[in-house]
Amino acid sequence: MGRIILYIQSYLSSDQTPGAAGNMFWVLVYIMLVFGGLSVAVIAMNWLERKILAHMQVRLGPMRVGPHGLLQPIADALKLLLKEDIMPAEADGVIFWVAPFVVVLAAFTVFVVVPFGPTHAITDMNIGILFMLGVSSLSVLGIVMAGWASNSHYPLIGALRSSAQMVSYEVAMGLAVVSVVLMTSLNATGTGTLSMIGIVQAQQSQGVWFIFKFFPLGLIGFFIFAVAMVAETNRAPFDLAEAESELTAGFHTEYSGFRWSLFFLAEYSAMIAVSSIAVTLWLGGWLRPFPNALSGSTWDFMFSFFPAAAFLFLAAITFFNVVRMPKHPLFRIQTIGLAGFGVVLGLIGLVLLVPAVRMRVQDIFWFSAKVAAFMYLYIWYRGTFPRYRFDQLMRMGWKVLLPMGLGVLILTAGVALLQQNLWHP
Amino acid sequence: MLIGGILVITRKNPVHSALALIVTLLAQASIYLMLYAPFVAGVQIILYAGGIMVLFLFVIMLVSIDRSMRERQFNSQWVAGIIAATALGGLFIAVYTKGTSIFPEHALPVVENDNTQKIATMLYGQYMFAFEIASLLLLVAIIGAVVMAKKKI
Fold this sequence. Notes:
Chain A is an all-alpha fold. Helices cover 70% and strands 0% of the residues of chain A. In chain B, 74% of the residues lie in helices and 0% in strands.
């Protein structure tokens, strides 16, 4: 037992990601953690999306299944697992079966390089961002396969439209990413890096998040990426390919039950993946707000209470809602359930107050908080914007975002050159 | 990679062939990785598997494949095929038995940490002219495609 503790402690003081250190055991542990965390995040997103959309539309959302609908995702998952698995008669069996797996594989493999902290990534490839863009472009293939294998015209048109949209906005995404990679090279040695951890460390050493660098160029680059990432994941307002009123659910029309839930899982994982790209490249990854302006041990100490404060705040809201529950005897079990949930949140908040935990959880917390903010933005867009027509969508991708991306890249290079020559002539 | 390649040429359904080609290209990317060229591997996945093959699949899916699937597959050039395969096999055996003495420098740089940076330095420094010519070629291809596809200029 003592040796196990020593082993864990010796690992925790390492300064490399497990993949870089070649440590297979910890790589597997991290993969399990990321996979589990991602699944929990997707389930939470399901509930959050329905509740937040409902509140934006001045209604309540799911309230019945658990207290305030908290058990709704579990009911949804059970329903999807128990549904009949239909395959169209003329469908291409092998491709029909493989397509959801390709999309899920592409969506989940991306998380191998996502940096939750300076050593908290599964591995740190030196082509990190290139790997993420490449693997997320493989999901386009899965969608095309799904639309083709269903052997019916709505899915085929939906799949072709969806893949055309994804390929178009990948170009704009790539240009925005290239402008950031350019910004990473503005350091003493003059070499940039494609590795995700390296990009965040470049932001830390240059003392500015890249969204604020060369104002407003960083902001415009971030805006281009933010729009392109929503279009890349087929979410509102770019969800023509899968909207119910347009194409009867597009490329996943013929998929039922578990296969559909795989597409759903892949869509939300892809959303989280591109959000983590945006957070790493523009918003400083795991760095807390103002890492250089408000630096020093007292500011570190004060900021380190944020995770615990966040969870305790959530627990307080939960207890407030417990008090507001109807006092009918049939609601008793829901009230008890909600109170139990509040107690769990409070306990997590208290555990995060312990100094040993508090110091280690900072990076992961800030990264997850920023990605959660992006998820909220995704849901907000869905509740706010009307859908783009397909030709408007393609026009935006090629005629608006691509020239903007090129302009940002050229201007960033120009300003960087000016800065280098003016400060170090 | 071999399985993917064989599947490409033996499947009747062109969609299956295209998917086997995707598998082949992904295997090619992993071969690049084993040769300590991570940048080329990443770009191979983005461009080939994620871009060019998607366009291949578009075209295949928009063209009706029933007629081509019902055609009988034929092998009427098997003599030339056997001669070419034997010649290629002979080449492989010759290179394998001679070993690395054929190549003047066989010291492979194992360090791959700055592979991307080195490629960039060479591409924009030493091989700038070739780079510009290649991009001009791509520009001409784009303009040609637009001209051919437009209804009126």
